[in-house]
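2024-03-11 09:14:02 INFO queue: dequeued item DUF106 domain-containing protein, len=213
2024-03-11 09:14:02 INFO validating residues
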Amino acid sequence: MIEFNFILNFLDLIFLQGDLFGIRGEGPLGSADPLVKGMLPSVFAVIGFSLMLNLFNAGVRKKLVDSVKLKRIMKETKTWQKARMAAFKSKDEAKIAELSKKSTYMNKMSMEMMTMNMRPMMITIIPLLLIFYFLMPTLFSYTVAISPIPLNVIPGDFFQLTCTAEKMALDAAAGIGPFCNTENEIFLWAWYFLTAIAFSGMIMKLTKTSMNE
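2024-03-11 09:14:37 INFO prediction written
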């Protein structure tokens, strides 16, 4: 099962890529004259923010989510799904009919599990947006790290993690920026997202808030 926290981080990414408060302007989040100078200090400072927010997320999750009930629902739904899949593979009509009688109940359990997991996000997304939109752009430059390879694995311009020569040329032609100094620099929001994903699993295991515990 995919760790639910990965899904939450991906939803965070959508918020971070947008311009929710209308302050981003023509370029990515960040500053041309940041308070934190240099890539190395920026790299570790953003990691610090990532760890802090991950710990906050884990604390809220531990407080709001009944982990015993969640694990019971997960185990029950997983067992039912596995049995149903086996019945379909073996074309056991009697077993399929028997398991289908529980579909409404299992759908209800799945919805309850989703609600339990989404509840913490409704609280944690607020400080995340405030910190990311109002604090971090004044502290850090548009790019805070550099990758040896391009990281833009999703087609299109919306989810670009690293600078491209093409985008740099387009910005220069439009008379905006510069937001990047060289190709493959990692944007501020992207470095936060990558570090959040990297540390979230470890922190959730340490705080015993992982769905897979």
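2024-03-11 09:14:37 INFO annotate: The chain has a mean pLDDT of 84.
2024-03-11 09:14:38 INFO item closed
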